[in-house]
Amino acid sequence: MDLSRRDFIKTTAAAAALAAATGGKFAVGSADAAEDSSGLKWGKAPCRFCGTGCGVLVGVKDGKIVATKGDPKAPVNKGLNCIKGYFLSKVLNGKDRLTKPLIRRGGKMVEASWDEALDLIAAKFRESIDKNGPDSVAIYGSGQWTVFEGYAAAKLFKGGIGTNNIEPNARLCMASAVTGFMTTFASDEPMGCYDDLDLGDTYFLWGANMAECHPVLFSRLIDNRLKNPKVKIIDFGTRHTRTSQMADQYIKFTPQTDLALLNGIAHVIVRDKLYDEKFIKNHAVFKKGKTSIGYGLEDKFKFVDDPKPITFDEYKEFLKTYTPEYVSGLSGVPVKTIEEVAKLYADKERKVNSLWTMGFNQHVRGTWANNLVYNIHLLTGKICKPGENPMSLTGQPSACGTAREVGTFTHRLPADMVVTNPEHREKAAKIWGVDPKKIPDKPTYNATEMFRALDRGDIKVVWVQVTNPFQSLPNLNRYRKGARKGDGRFVIVSDIYPTRSTELADVILPSASWVEKEGVFGNAERRTQQWFKMVDPPGEARNDLWQTIELAKRLGYGSLFPYNYVEKEIWEEYRLFNAGQGKDLAPYEAYTKARGLRWPVVNGQETLYRYAEGHDPYVKPGEGIKFYKNKKDDGKAVIWARPYEPAAEAPDRQYPFWLCTGRVLEHWHTGTMTGRVPELKRAYGAAVCEIHPDDAKKLGIKQGGKVKLSSRRGSIVLTADLRGRGKAEKGNIFVAFFDENKLINELCIDAYCPISGEPDFKKCAVKLEKA
Amino acid sequence: MPVSSVVISCRPDKATLVESLLIVMPQLEIHHRLENGCLIAVLETETVDAEVSLFKEIMQTDGVFDVRLAYHHFEDLQELQT
């Protein structure tokens, strides 16, 4: 690159930053011209990484991506990306990209043609179905599937093969949020949107390290605080993080006691009559469900709740246990703090928001934790209003758009529908053009149970797409061994790089990624975003949508996919499920132009606030707020009496520490993309073991020393970190799960929330020794 | 050599201090300083690794509370790889 071009690029870069920082006041030239003066052709796409859904402009020259920039027209991030923007430059171009199908022969993976690989896969599917029935085959996808990919997989498996053996990895991260929404509001996904980050003044973060895991959203919070001195950020956590540093208040609590804290806050609100009586009367009912509901540790665990209506008085009686003193004893949070927080939540002069991620969701009572935070917003009437909402954040780019909205779970059909409802099956079958009897009326396995079934041999053939279960499942040793037990088991993995899952596969298929294909993702604020293919995938890599449809053709279900412009026609078909259900989507064309639209989209208008008159077209004039999806409770939301119950496994004399796993800023999930970039890997190369200095001192452990961490399920040797940017509280250990050479999930317990089926990656008992 | 631009947010009263700390960093040029304390900088390094390291170094600088990436150009890296 010559000097004048280099100077030109530097000037362009500075101008882009200036334009973004000033909200376009000093914009230079067109931000998204199809082709700019430097010869780059720009196209829009949502970021490939987390669930925030930031807009990115991708610059292509001579068929290659040579630049990216934050999309100034994207309302989510307004022209600025987080550090992961740097990763986009190279994740598609790692030297070990998979470019040819590979088949295991004699213990080695050898190159094969697509026809050979797909014919073999189809033969294995047919053989297993003929011998063991359709429930012996399965597909395991993710919240990184495009809407088209997830839809095609659901249609093939539920409507074609006739099995509900389809699950996404979102079961490991978002399922409790879904069941929380469904049990409280009878419809998945939030009422509010990211605008609340700019409009509110009080933000409670629960189990969410937003500064590292959702940095762009956290930046919006910080910007809000700069403009408005009233803004307070309160971080509830079991680990001191970068978020805690930036918060106005950090409140540490003993793991699992968030349930007690939430009930304690409700106790104070009710005791001091700080609730909004009129709101409760008009918009809420009270219920209780089963208690002592188990932990899903046994294979084929089943649980069905039994909701019973209760009165407000009975709910008050339930809350009597949760005095600040009792809750303080459990949680370690001072009584005074509990009282103050409750009053802050209820302060009529404050616009209060709650934000949470995996701390609530990856929890053996994850559904309850979600219910309990909604309780507080429903008691105080701080919901469905600009700047005042509870908001569950997501970790994957289309956990909402694909896993939750398309419904790629065993029990689900698109648009909140379920396989157990005959009318829902009828509707799905009609749209899909299949016999309603084809769709089985019973769910089969949640994600954990799916891999238990593979281990037992009840599932013989499993196809994994866009995810890495043999690094990300809990109690990993069991499921890794199960995959290679033989006896007819056959594992197919589609990915863009070799992973800890491809190493267990019988067939590896090379996939296209992100802007190597056309796609749609849906983010955490109900925003649906489309992009076009901009570059070719390397070698013979093909997108997962094509792969699924090719299998369908070989199994005799090609007629389910009679499309010419596959993506557009799938979209228009999928839209039929959503129309009139409060989940309406716009025609495909609209998304090709817009920087995403938040559903329901009715008459071309997106919806910022669900259930709110003047915002949501389903709410009639005069209704104010109407939770119209919850028809059985007359359009009211449910305040649940859900008790505190202990974790599945708590520290004891033998295993005296809590283990919590999670993410770090530099790496995303299992690191299959960010770990491919050698320079980035060096920046945060290996997972470390965060230990409180006092605990380390007692055990003679020094900064940078080796430690052996063990649970009842496995052991791992790590480097001790006593002064990293994340700081473990006393009695707690934190280890990130991105490192493919340090499989921390081997130590995690595969206990899950009985209602959501989501495992608890945040709590199990471990012991720590100097290695 | 990749080129990127970042928006550095800092407390308005600390902007001068932050600028003085950042200005000595090689591979970083400050292009603008806004009234609200934001600094606009261009990073020019040998590798993406160096960009990420620099980004993190800026983030950890006293008085800085946020750094965001606006533009990333890596045409040369592509040339090297092909």
Describe the 3D structure.
The complex is a heterodimer of chains A (771) and B (82). Chain A is of the alpha/beta class and 771 residues long. Helices cover 32% and strands 18% of the residues of chain A. Chain A has 25 helices and 29 strands. In chain A, helix 3 packs across helix 22 (566-578) and helix 12 crosses helix 13. The radius of gyration of chain A is 25 Å and the shape is globular. In chain A, 62% of the residues are buried. Chain B is of the alpha+beta class. Helices cover 33% and strands 37% of the residues of chain B. Chain B has 3 helices and 4 strands. Chain B has helices spanning 15-22, 48-59, 75-81, and strands at residues 3-10, 28-33, 39-44, 64-73. Chain B has a 4-stranded antiparallel sheet, covered by helices on one side. The two termini of chain B are 15 Å apart. In chain B, 46% of the residues are buried. The interface between A and B is large, with 49 and 43 residues. Strand 3 (64-70) of chain A pairs antiparallel with strand 4 (64-73) of chain B.
Write the layout of secondary structure elements.
The complex is a heterodimer of chains A (771) and B (82).
Chain A: H1 3-21, E1 41-46, E2 55-61, E3 64-70, E4 102-105, E5 108-111, H2 114-132, E6 137-141, H3 147-161, E7 166-168, H4 175-185, H5 195-199, E8 202-206, H6 210-213, H7 215-227, E9 232-237, E10 239-240, H8 242-246, E11 249-252, H9 258-271, H10 277-283, E12 284-288, E13 308-310, H11 312-319, H12 324-331, H13 335-346, E14 352-356, H14 358-361, H15 366-380, E15 390-392, H16 399-407, H17 422-432, H18 447-456, E16 461-465, H19 469-472, H20 476-483, E17 490-495, E18 507-510, E19 519-522, E20 527-531, H21 544-554, H22 566-578, H23 588-593, E21 597-598, E22 637-641, E23 657-662, H24 678-683, E24 688-691, H25 693-699, E25 706-711, E26 714-721, E27 727-728, E28 732-736, E29 764-770
Parallel strand pairs in A: 6-7, 6-16, 8-9, 8-14, 9-11, 12-22, 14-15, 16-17, 17-18, 23-28, 24-26
Antiparallel strand pairs in A: 1-2, 2-3, 4-5, 4-18, 10-27, 12-13, 19-20, 20-21, 23-29, 24-28, 25-26, 25-29
Chain B: E1 3-10, H1 15-22, E2 28-33, E3 39-44, H2 48-59, E4 64-73, H3 75-81
Antiparallel strand pairs in B: 1-3, 1-4, 2-3
